[in-house]
Write a structure and sequence with these properties.
Blueprint (H helix, E strand, L loop, with lengths): L8 H12 L12 E7 L4 E9 L5 E9 L2 H14 L4 H15 L6 H7 L15 H21 L2
Antiparallel strand pairs: 1-2, 2-3
The structure holds zinc ion.
Length: about 150
């Protein structure tokens, strides 16, 4: 298994489940936002597409990708959280997650809010894998930045 040894068993289980059965896998026929991310350290790739509803909130999410279990599981978990969010809310979520990867401790409340995503905290023990965990999230950030540039 490509999950690093030493991750808590529960965390491993969630990560492996998302890796084996990724949520929202696929391509949108008409994506309002789209971006492609690549992590050269590991060869991970994530292509993220989002569709916006009339209210400007995310109503469709899909990703394609390949690479290690951490990168793909993290992208899968991210897509599971995005539906119904505004782009501002999605950006705030990215910021929170980047903070976690940089070592921020979560309150119990935040941990509950993040649900399965909190399982990725274990990745911090493996600094080289943090880029894997972040890939889907930085790809989302790029997609939002690009969208704002073209829809200002
Ligand atoms: Zn990786």
């Amino acid at each position: 298994m490509q999950t690093p040894d030493g991750l808590d068993d529960l965390y491993q289980e969630i990560i492996i489940d998302h890796y084996k059965s990724p949520r929202n896998k696929g391509t949108l026929a008409h994506a309002d936002l789209r971006s492609e991310g690549f992590n050269p350290f590991c060869g991970d790739q994530v292509i993220l597409g989002l569709g916006l509803g009339a209210d400007g909130r995310i109503d469709e999410v899909a990703f394609e990708g390949q690479g290690c279990s951490i990168s793909q599981a993290s992208a899968s978990m991210l897509t599971g959280q995005l539906k119904g969010m505004s782009l501002d809310e999605a950006e705030a979520l990215v910021k929170t997650f980047k903070g976690i990867m940089a070592g921020d401790e979560l309150s119990d409340e935040q941990e509950e809010e993040l649900g399965e995503i909190a399982a990725l905290q274990g990745v911090r023990q493996f600094p080289i894998r943090i880029k894997c965990a972040l890939l889907g999230w930085t790809t989302l950030q790029d997609a939002i930045a690009e969208y704002r540039k073209t829809h200002a």
